[in-house]
Write a structure and sequence with these properties.
Layout: H1 3-12, H2 33-54, H3 61-68, H4 72-78, H5 82-107, H6 112-122, H7 126-129, H8 131-141, H9 148-176, H10 182-205, H11 212-230
Length: about 230
C-alpha cells in the first residue's frame, strides 16, 4: 500500500464530526408511572378549568397548557389531541361525581329513605354545583349529540347510578309496604335525576337569583312529597 493510499484509508476511518445543530434532540425520558399519572391528573384538572372559563370550542391545547403552567410540548406528550384530552377530562369529572354520591350513599346507614336523601344532598355540594362546575357540566352535555364518545362516557356512569338508586327505591317500597316493581322504582330514579338536573340548570342560568340552598330544599321536598308517597302504594 502506498503512502497516499494509507492516508486515504486512515481518513476514511475517522467519522466526520456533527455540527451541534445536527445533534438529534434527546427523547423524553420514561417517567415513573406515579409521576406520569400525577401529570395527567394535572392536565385533566387544567382542562376542566379551561372549559369552565372558555367553553369547549375556545378551549385549546394552548389554554390548557396555560392553566397547567406547562408547555404545549409536555401536554402533547401525554395527550395527543384535544379530543382525547377532553374525553379524559369528562371521564374524570364523572368519576369524581360517582365517588361523591357513592360515599354519601354508603355513609347514610341502612335506612333507604336516608340513603335517597343523602344522594340528593350530595348533588348540591359546592364541588358539584358551584358556577364553575355547572359551566363545565353543561358545556359537555351540549355536545353529547355531536360527540358520541361524550355520550358513551355519560351512559356508563349514569347506568351505574340508575342501578344503585333503583335498588334503594325498591328497598324503600318494601319498607313502606308498596307494590314491588323494578320498572316503577327506576322511573322514580329518573324523576329524581330529571328534577335535580332542572335545578342545576336554573342554578347555572340564574346564579345570582337562585341559590344552592334553595335548590337543595326543593329537591328534598320533591323526594318527601312525590317519591315517598309512590312507595306506599
Amino acid at each position: 500500500m502506498t503512502k497516499k493510499e494509507d492516508e486515504k484509508q486512515e481518513y476514511a476511518e475517522v467519522p466526520p464530526k456533527k455540527h451541534p445543530e445536527q445533534e438529534p434532540e434527546p427523547r423524553p425520558r420514561r417517567e415513573r408511572k406515579g409521576n406520569a399519572d400525577m401529570r395527567r391528573r394535572q392536565l385533566v384538572a387544567a382542562t376542566l378549568d379551561s372549559v369552565a372559563k372558555n367553553g369547549l370550542a375556545r378551549t385549546t391545547l394552548a389554554t390548557v397548557a396555560g392553566e397547567a403552567g406547562l408547555s404545549q410540548g409536555v401536554l402533547v406528550f401525554y395527550f395527543k389531541s384535544k379530543g382525547g384530552l377532553l374525553a379524559a377530562a369528562l371521564h374524570a369529572k364523572y368519576a369524581r361525581y360517582q365517588e361523591i354520591w357513592q360515599a354519601a350513599l354508603d355513609a347514610a346507614g341502612p335506612d333507604p329513605l336516608n340513603k335517597l336523601l343523602a344522594v340528593v344532598e350530595a348533588d348540591f355540594t359546592p364541588e358539584l354545583c358551584d358556577p364553575e362546575a355547572l359551566a363545565t357540566w353543561f358545556a359537555f352535555w351540549g355536545e353529547h349529540r355531536f360527540t358520541p364518545q361524550y355520550a358513551e362516557i355519560a351512559e356508563e356512569f349514569d347506568a351505574n347510578r340508575m342501578a344503585r338508586l333503583t335498588e334503594v327505591c325498591l328497598d324503600l317500597t318494601r319498607q313502606n309496604g308498596g307494590a314491588e316493581d323494578a320498572s316503577r322504582a327506576a322511573q322514580m330514579v329518573l324523576w329524581i335525576d330529571t328534577f335535580t338536573d332542572g335545578l342545576w340548570q336554573k342554578l347555572h342560568l340564574n346564579p345570582q337569583g337562585f341559590t344552592r340552598e334553595t335548590a337543595l330544599s326543593l329537591a328534598l321536598e320533591f323526594v318527601h312529597d312525590v317519591i315517598v308517597p309512590r312507595t306506599e302504594r
